[in-house]
Amino acid sequence: MSKLDVNKIRSDFPVFQDQSLVYLDSAATTQKPHQVIDAISEFYSHSYANVHRGIYNLSFKATEAYHGARLKAQKFINAKDWQSIIFTGGTTESINLVAHSWGRKNLNMGDEILITEMEHHSNIVPWQLIAEDRGAILKYIPINQDGTLDLSDLGTLLSDKTKLVSIIHQSNVFGTINPIQEIINKAKKVGAITLIDAAQSAPHDTLDVQDMDCDFLALSGHKMLGPTGIGILYGKLDIIEGMEPFMGGGDMINSVTMSKSTWNDAPYKFEAGTPNIAQAVGFGAAIDYLDQLGMQNVSEYLQDLKLYALIQLKAIEGIKVYGHTKNKSSSVISFNLQDVHPHDLAQFLDQDNIAVRAGHHCAQPVMDKLGISSTIRASLYIYNTKADIDKLCDSLVKTAKFFRGL
Amino acid sequence: MNDLQDLYQQVIIDHNHNPRNFKEIEQASHVAKGHNPLCGDKIDIYIIIKDNLITDVGFTGSGCAISKASSSLMTEALIGKSIDEADHLFEKVHDMLTKGKADIEGIGKLAVLSGVHKFPARVKCAILPWRTLKNALENKDQIAVTE
Ligand SMILES: Cc1ncc(COP(=O)(O)O)c(C=O)c1O
Asked: Chain A residue with minimal CA distance to B35?
């Protein structure tokens, strides 16, 4: 028996007032419970002002709320210091921040950056840019055809030239859960800095940055019930304290004169300009919501639902499910249906009010490796039910018949 | 019948299953590549032009039913046409797909594509082969993209 009351959860989400909607694109972004929507609306209605600036009461309240969200995020990933939590626009900005502020200072000609072939474009392109800029070399841990990482050459890929290792925790294409602990430990042995892209793992599983002992971790609020435009970069305090600012502007300075400026302390040094205050507050409410459910319960519920989905999907004639073999995996499932192109398939599913993603999922290197141009991706979250899976399967069977039967 | 099944009628399904002129032409005088970054679809177009007349057209690549049918129907429509006529046809099809004009004279079988207009996300799929054709005719080297 699941410890999540899914009916209650569904009733929290205004979008599911439309009972017929089957939303299976949570890996792209999740729907929002009214608790998050209300928190933002409440904040704008009663506690809104700019932060860190005013002497007046409203500004004080806004600053408290903004700081409160930071403390919630700190607790959510079990960070030691709140100063380690830098608010960003999301995972993409977090990774770019590291590439820019850490990379410009620490990468030199011939240094190596190690990522994997499984990365989202946001954990590839920033490294290509900084590598080009600094004369550094970008290397890839290869993937196997079954959507797992091939770690057999890790020992040679990692060397004293490796300065940074940046790894996707859970694949946004296959759902594969990577053995990041093993990679972090080995990276540390050669003295490399480690970054974990937790965009997909944060919504699914308990994260503990002290336990992982990674140097950086990036995540996005909108993939875990929060609003868009907010995410965090976690960075170990001694590392971020030594980093240069990302953007220049208000809030990130101590003093500015015509000739020179000095920087504020972390995390403010990395938060130039008026931040996304209301989004941070909404993100805090999303963390509260997940905390109340318990990440362990969320995780177990999604594992159960994934197993059900895999069984039902694999029973359909001509279906090919990618990944989900020997490694642990999350509830993100990519597949193709013989005789029906993913683009056409998504269009037919939409007709039955089923939302899935069709395409390369911002991971073209992965697609190239598997020799496919696109897949359908169904990604599950806490508001999905077995009935949703059944509707998906019925619609798949119906569409296959239409395309094959003519 | 709803709009979607209307669109994916017999002709489109048939051309998807059995694309006409689905071939590489080694001695082509004009070639071009097309790419839809949204879905990763790719197409190559090969044309033989003799004395200002299109004598053969082929295409290869991977794509959805809409893009495949559009390519297949396009190759059928082009064979025997002059370059001017092909340009003209491009304009007509472009108008039909982007503006939803259905009763276009001299468009023949291509009229089955008029329903694509109702599905904005799919207009790009149908237009890709035509953009690629345009590049091939103009001997442009760059890859035609849908955006
Ligand atoms: C694994 C992974 N990393 C990074 C990102 C980028 O996240 P965002 O677009 O929120 O910056 C995504 C989301 O698409 C993702 O799935």
From this structure: A373
